[in-house]
Amino acid sequence: MSVDLIRDAVTTSEPWLAQCHFVRAADTNDAGTKDSEGPLQDGDTSQTEDRFDLPGDRDDHCKGLVAVLTSDRAGFEQALEKFLADQPLRLLWCEDIMPATRWMMRYPKDKSALDLARMVHDYRPVEIGPLATAEDGPGEHADAIWVELKEDITPLDDQFGAWPPKTVPDELVEYLFGDIEKTGKTGLATYAVIDASKMTHLVENLATSGLEYRCLFTGEAGENLGEVAPYLVKLEKDARFTRDLLSKGDHPWQHWDREAAAFIRSSAGFDDIWRHLRKFTKIRDSNDKWFFLRFWDRMFVYYLHEHPKGPFPEGFFREIEVLIAPHKEGAARIVGKTGSEATASEPFFPTFSAFVAGNKRTGFIDRVKAFFNAKYENSPDDDVLTQQYRYARELGMTSELAVLKTMEAQFVLHRAGQKAEKLDPAEIQNFEDMSDVHRADALLTLATKMVGD
């Protein structure tokens, strides 16, 4: 397991908000509805149903603001679905799911949203605001991009005996070199942005490919970071280099599993798309500090899939019609602009960095779970692993190795039926003066001693 810094925060529950769309079925109960005779009686638990009452005797499509006490997007939808189990509503979709703090940044005049967020707590984790009838469709703010997940892609193999050999998997021919109907355009050029750090001898291979290419870094950055820099390449369908990018195997020229490239369809010429993409290799955060943005990485495209309304780096799609990121698992995420501008007003960087941190945290916890299963032949439930992770971060552990060992120390106690709270750093001499890895080693030694292993 690599020892990389985990640049994220401890996850805690907080109010999240979203604009949610429902179908409200016509009432069939006799009590507590608009058709009942007389007021509700004391102790009647159906008082929530007339809150969701709408005119008409048919299924009604309605929408309203919803507040949920949760720690992430998935938890929002899970808690809402559970809450609706005994309500006369069925969830259709949710728009703009985000923490209440970010919602208020986007809609600072929406005081009712703030009031709704203040209503949720541990004993009432879901609160639905007033509902209004809604037109069928995606909602009042159109998506700025369309998204697809193309699965069951068969990468190219050695193709021994095949003539002529294919250069593109059948499932990707239309997306990479055909006319994509959703764009409404024909004759789009195909470009690849390739990560030199993921392909050995990339520059040498490009030099003999016969294709037009250029590094997206220039000047000192291009000189110092050339071996790990992104390169823009104009692809031709029948080129050997194109085939190598999309081939899977053990040969050094087969690059599918490296996930080294993202593909772009654009009507712009090479020089224009090169100048455009260079604008987004670095972005500023809210403190005016520069950061590299790896927009050619699958994580960025995954973010776009989860945020079809944005926020995006301003102007990112101006010269880009479609962005395609193949996955080594035999799939590809595809996004394309719709012609609608993103409506989100909050800055891109904090939203994207929080998304990346959350996914890194989830991936790390998954790896810890696999480690426990391999070493101990079992592992705790995900909620226990999350608590162990939080405790490690609260102790100031920053490296993955230190977090792993601190979680393992807690797991050793967990297996023995003891609570993690008994793992007291005060029992370790000079604990605060140690590096985080040495502190984690000391905690693991202490836990092992406590259970007598």
Features:
single chain, 453 residues, alpha+beta, 3 domains, seven-stranded antiparallel sheet, five-stranded antiparallel sheet, 13 helices, disordered N terminus, DUF4123, DUF4123 domain-containing protein
Protein described:
By secondary structure, the protein is α+β, with helices and mostly antiparallel strands. Helix content is 31%, strand content 19%. It contains 13 helices and 14 strands. Strand 11 (282-284) and strand 12 form a beta hairpin. The radius of gyration is 27 Å and the shape is globular. Mean pLDDT is 83; it is low at 1-11, 28-50, 54-58 and 136-141. Residues 28-56 are annotated as: Disordered.
Largest sheet geometry: 7 strands, antiparallel
Rg is 27 Å
Q: Which word captures the global form?
A: globular
- Mean of all residue-level pLDDT scores: 83
Number of helices: 13
Total number of strands: 14
The ordered H/E elements are EEHEHHEEEHEHEHEHEHEEHEEHHHH
How far apart the termini lie comes to 24 Å
Low-confidence stretches: 1-11, 28-50, 54-58, 136-141
Strand order of the largest sheet: 6-14-13-10-7-9-8
Strand portion: 15-25%
Count of discrete domains: 3
Secondary-structure-derived class = alpha+beta
Which percent bin holds the helix content?
A: 25-40%
